[in-house]
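Need residues for this backbone.
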């Protein structure tokens, strides 16, 4: 597979799984050398790499509610104010938590736009 044909979400998901010990086909890594992070730890590594080195795309986000990864360019939402949750995948965007947080959105325009739909 050529690098540019890989969907960034799939690629990030693969790293996310890899860091939790799911080794992709075609790789042999000694058991002792295999990473075995928790989902939270794995996500911290990816988040750090994305922010510091841009070796992984920074628009792949992890939902603060369900923990799934998603492509923030094409789905989900970010409510970057107040306390967590900030990131909502497409599915959790339909949930109560999103509506609750959106009610407290300091950006009145965005809030009115959302609730007028
Ligand atoms: Zn979610």
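Answer:
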């Amino acid at each position: 597979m050529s690098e540019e044909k890989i969907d960034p979400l799939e690629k990030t998901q693969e790293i996310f799984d890899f860091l939790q010990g799911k080794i992709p086909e075609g790789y042999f890594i000694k058991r002792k050398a295999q990473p075995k992070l928790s989902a939270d730890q794995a996500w911290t590594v990816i988040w750090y790499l994305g922010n510091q080195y841009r070796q992984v795309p920074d628009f792949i986000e992890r939902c603060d509610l369900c923990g799934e990864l998603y492509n923030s360019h094409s789905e989900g939402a970010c409510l970057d104010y107040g306390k967590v949750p900030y990131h909502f995948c497409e599915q959790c965007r339909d949930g109560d938590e999103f509506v609750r947080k959106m009610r407290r959105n300091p950006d009145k325009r965005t809030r009115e736009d959302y609730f007028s739909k």
